[in-house]
Amino acid sequence: MYRLALAFVVLLALGAVLLPGVRSSAETAHVLPAPVADESPGSATSEVAVFAGGCFWGVQGVFQHVNGVTSAVSGYAGGDKKTAQYETVSTGATGHAESVRITFDPHKITYGQLLRIFFSVAHDPTELNRQGPDFGTQYRSALFPATGEQTRVARAYIDQLNQSGAAIVTKIEPDREFYPAEGYHQDYLTRHPNSPYIMINDQPKIESLKQVFPSLYRADPVLVATSG
């Protein structure tokens, strides 16, 4: 997606406002029902979830605006440590997906609620190996559960959505390591709000989060630069 930024500048200068498959600011989120099965919060005050849903700039940006999330870090999951760098992952041959590691307080927001935001706002779970203008297995829709309980909830929710008529392509890939991305990818949406790519593809997701899940929306994002 980094290489596409200049192309978007040229397209906007020529008066192009929308490309096929690219979200427009007028597009509304596909609000999906809440999961029937969810985790019950235990004594722990911190839990980790890893989601992949296209370019990690937008997914990170969405969850940085969610109440109960204490950290959201862009990175790579699904492949080996030695190939966990942007230029290599971008070839689509590493097994990695651009992913986001979300740390959250399960007493403030549940794993199931995060899944609902992920499927409704953060990306389109019916798109196979693509999101917006980005194509390839590195942009696939995937969940990397950290526990058996997360796996159970994720499987139950995908089954629930498919039974209601959705065609979810999201894969569940347990037992995969997460590797943080390079520093210039972190907090990208916040640091580059006027980037054409961000304006077209990702800012509408933040607005949808605010409108669709107002009780879960936080105006000030929790940034890697401040949360570590």
List the helices and strands and how they pair.
Blueprint: H1 4-13, E1 47-53, H2 56-63, E2 69-77, H3 86-89, E3 97-104, H4 111-122, E4 130-131, E5 134-135, E6 141-143, H5 148-163, E7 171-172, E8 178-180, H6 188-191, H7 196-212, H8 224-227
Parallel strand pairs: 6-7
Antiparallel strand pairs: 1-3, 1-6, 2-3, 2-8, 4-5
Helix pairs in contact: 2-4, 2-7
Strands side by side in the biggest sheet:
7-6-1-3-2-8
Number of helical elements: 8
Query: Which fold does the CATH topology refer to?
Result: Peptide Methionine Sulfoxide Reductase, Chain A
Strand content: 15-25%
Order of helices and strands: HEHEHEHEEEHEEHHH
Q: What is the terminal-to-terminal distance?
A: 24 Å
- What is the CATH superfamily? Peptide methionine sulphoxide reductase MsrA
- Poorly predicted ranges (pLDDT <50, ≥5 residues)? 3-27
Q: What is the count of structural domains?
A: 1
Give the helix proportion (percent range): 25-40%
CATH architectural grouping: 2-Layer Sandwich
Shape: globular
Could you describe the 3D structure shown?
The chain is of the alpha+beta class and 228 residues long. The chain has one domain (45-218): Peptide Methionine Sulfoxide Reductase, Chain A. Helices cover 33% and strands 16% of the residues. It has helices at 4-13, 56-63, 86-89, 111-122, 148-163, 188-191, 196-212, 224-227; strands at 47-53, 69-77, 97-104, 130-131, 134-135, 141-143, 171-172, 178-180. The strands form 2 sheets. The protein has a 6-stranded mixed beta sheet with strand order 7-6-1-3-2-8, with helices on one face. The radius of gyration is 16 Å and the shape is globular. The model is unreliable at 3-27 (pLDDT under 50).
